[in-house]
Amino acid sequence: MNENLVRIKRKNQTVIFIVVLTVFTYLSSVITDFNILHGIATLPEAIVWIFSNLVITEESLERLPTIVEKLIETILMSIAATTTATIFSLILGVMGSKTIGTSKALGVFARFVASLSRNIPVVAWALILLLSFGQNSLTGYLALFVGSVGFLTRSFIEVIDEASQSAVVALRATGATYVQIIGKAVIPECLPQMISWVLFMIETNIRNATLVGILTGTGIGYSFDLYYKTMNYPGVALVTISIVLAVILIELLSNHVRKVIL
After folding, report:
1. Per-residue DSSP letters for 187-222?
2. In total, how many domains does the chain have?
3. Based on the domain organization, do 254 and 171 belong to the same domain?
4. Do residues 86 and 38 share a domain?
5. Could you tell me where the DSSP H helices lie in the chain?
6. Is 120 exposed, middle or buried (0-12, 13-18, 19+ CB in 10 A)?
7. Does 157 lie in the same domain as 215?
8. Radius of gyration of the chain (CA)
């Protein structure tokens, strides 16, 4: 009897959820003046346009060395922003941890910094920093750095809090200092998961760097924006494919590293 009531309750909750989701979807379409049927109807035409215009030509291949150079610049900027953000995130992660944190006030501060930088999109950070630093590589680097700090700090806090505390307790019993506990117990225990999150952040930043580059006039994003504004669609196609291949290659490399360390 109880199982039947539970099933009925879950079924009713599912129906209510679907109805509420449907209503919100409809209201969103009305408010934004978005016609789903019209979008579906124009999809074949859009696909035909893509395959007709975004075609790599021999002329566009002559720009490949420049595109590769900009792509490498974007990848290096993403790696630099992520690795430097990792150092700050590790400090904030230790401060924000509920298990090894030394001060409640510092913990609140670390979580606030993580929440603030993580909940503001990287593109928004790029626009904010653009007003102060102008269109240059530094602006792109700082935008990726701030976004990475928020994400990695949150991830590191969770990893540290979920780690086994047996080594920490053993070192405390021997009279080890706080720094020794962090260096000998916490970091070795959490290092594989932390590296995994750092690799994921590098992949994400390479994608984000394209959008940031459009705003800051740097990297592969600048090349994409330049070709798009001049309606050089073969160039746009070559840039797009280069980005996709680079992201896939980085992801395959990251997955291999994860398999080795985890």
Report:
1. HHHHHHHHHHHHHHHHHHHHHHHHHHHHHHT-HHHH
2. 2
3. yes
4. no
5. 2-32, 36-53, 58-61, 64-96, 104-119, 122-133, 137-162, 166-173, 178-181, 187-216, 219-229, 233-261
6. middle
7. yes
8. 24
Same domain, 49 and 134: no
Model confidence pTM above 0.85: no
Q: Torsions phi, psi of 159, nearest 5?
A: -65, -45
Tokens linked to 140: 């792109």
Question: Cα(180)–Cα(167) distance, rounded to whole angstroms?
Answer: 11
**80 and 170, same domain (yes or no):** yes
Tokens of 196: 């995994």
Q: Are residues 123 and 27 in the same domain?
A: no
What is the full per-residue pLDDT of the chain (262 aa) written as tens digits?
567 777 777 888 888 889 998 888 888 888 888 777 777 888 888 888 888 888 888 888 888 888 889 889 889 999 999 999 999 999 898 888 887 777 788 888 888 988 888 888 888 888 888 888 888 888 889 999 999 999 999 999 888 888 767 777 777 777 777 777 787 778 888 888 888 899 889 888 988 888 888 888 888 888 888 888 888 888 889 998 988 888 888 888 888 887 877 6
99 with 176, same domain: the answer is yes
Question: Do 33 and 83 belong to one domain?
Answer: no
SS3 assignment, position 223: helix
CA atoms of 40 and 250, how far apart (whole Å)? 33
Sign of CA dihedral 126, 132, 133, 135: positive
We report the CATH number of the domain holding residue 219 as 1.10.3720.10
Q: 25: domain range? A: 2-53
